[in-house]
Amino acid sequence: MGIPINIDLEKIYTTLRERVNPTLPGEELSVSLEATVVSVECSSLAYRRSNGVIGPGSHSTASGRDYISTITINIDGPVKRLEFGGWPPLEKGDKIRAYVIAGDEVRDPLKRSSVTRYTPRELREKEKPFKLEKLRDGEVVATYRA
User: Fold this and answer.
1) What is the pLDDT of residues 71-110, one digit of tens each?
2) CATH topology (fold) of 25-50+60-145
3) 3-state DSSP call for residue 19?
């Protein structure tokens, strides 16, 4: 008969999971940036997608347009441009708050979770915000979501 050992297996499993898969949900990596708009360039891209069926049978296609805005900003820090899905009515001189995820998306090939996870990273020169807020006198006057 030996000495009983108290082992916290859940703590060990959690530590091992974090070392093997050090990812976080997006809300934990969300960063807000306040900046002044220097310029806005809007563009659209037509697309057509097919289900890839060749020959007789059910064929389906989808077509449409993607709308992208490239917003150059003036801010202290590495971010100089924002690529936003949509055409928010912004112009030079507007004050904005952009919400970005400081992480790279990690795809789960087994789709075990509906929560998208990210590996943390430093902010880059070009970021893709998921939300923009237009500010006037420090107050939010409009909100745009990608």
Assistant:
1) 999 999 999 999 999 899 999 999 999 999 999 888 766 6
2) OB fold (Dihydrolipoamide Acetyltransferase, E2P) (2.40.50)
3) helix
